[in-house]
Amino acid sequence: MTTRSNSLAQADLATALHPYTDARAHEQRGPLIIERGEGVRVFDSEGRDYIEAMSGLWSVALGFSEERLVKAATAQMEKLPYYHSFTHKAHEPSIRLGEKLVEMAPEGLTRVFFTNSGSEANDTVIKMVWFMNNALGRPKKKKFLARTKGYHGITIASGSLTGLPNNHRDFDLPAIPVVHLTCPHHYRFGHEGESEQDFAKRLIAEAEETILREDPDTIAAFIGEPLMGAGGVMPPPEGYWDGIAALCKKYDILLVADEVINGFGRLGTTFGCQKYGFTPDILVTSKQLTSSYLPLAAILFSEKVYDAIADNTHTIGTFGHGYTATGHPVATAVGLENLAIIEERDLVGNAARMGERLQEGLAILKDHPLVGEVRGAGLIAGVELVADKAKKTPFDPIGKVGTRAFEIGHEEGLIIRNAGDTLALCPPLIVTEEDVDAILARLTRVIDRTWEWVQAEGLKG
pTM score, two decimals? Predict the structure, then answer.
């Protein structure tokens, strides 16, 4: 390690508390310091290169060196580096981006509210829905339906919607009224001999039973990722979303599509809800909206939701919610340019084409003795590692093997993410055939080496 790298590492260890990190383990291990990025690759402080097969955090659509985004940010910084959108104020970048998002959105989503992250956006959705139902004289209609293993953020409210144990443990969450339904992952939660279609029917029946048990007049919204991401990359079973959408309509429950990971081409369609054939009342976006070059999120919602909120703001005299950086001019200028590039270069189409190559290449790994299931859609995929293929037996404890594979990935020049023992991939939308093939080759080496380690350690389920 160079003197400079060592100095940076020591400064990090002396000052930082890292998200999603064992702090005591970090004190022993130290940080991997990423210094620069180029296309689908990043380079650490020692000059080593890595294929960033996770797009950072599911988010860097255009890769790490898109000059047009830098220029868009610079030009806006020089013209108007900051202004707010409180009390009737506005500026062109946020107006134009809102206009563009409505143009791109599924039919019926005509209004936009900006936040700085997906977590803030889902937190805002909760407040919007509560505000709306109070305005409509429905003060009991406040509960949310979410799913086990769903991910919706980490604020107190959005973290309550998230269905992952470590996002709740010792944080006193959930802290809002939310009911978590069965995760729609057939491989893990389907009954023995149960078809995917029957599994979907069972989950839809469970959702209706829950609605009736809780009382439809208390259920405000159902929130879900079209394809579940951070919980382990889980596409829905066939017929699932049709059934959920029908239930929401039947019981007057708002349907919220969390497209923070799925949106802007990830699945080979502009939005995930379009791939799975349903239209939400509210759609949440972030991450690929700016390729994460700057923090930004956007909530798209229907005129029905807007009207109820707008009428109540007139009664009260204000909408008492917003952020200092809501619709930040530099972030929205970058977002507008980012979406223009995605369209000009047909990156949604590229995600579909390269996604097919990725999924076909990963399918070969199904025969590997360590691999239980390969799943995904477009440019997002998960490879679940198991102790026993025939019985689908997970390792005990879950996550130990996945973490070792994650570490071996770094050694092989491949940045992936492990959700427990599922290895997640989510490369930038700009990937080429050569990039995909390199990812597949490196991942195969990672899994082979992990299998050798599992055997040497004598690990079992």
Answer: 0.97
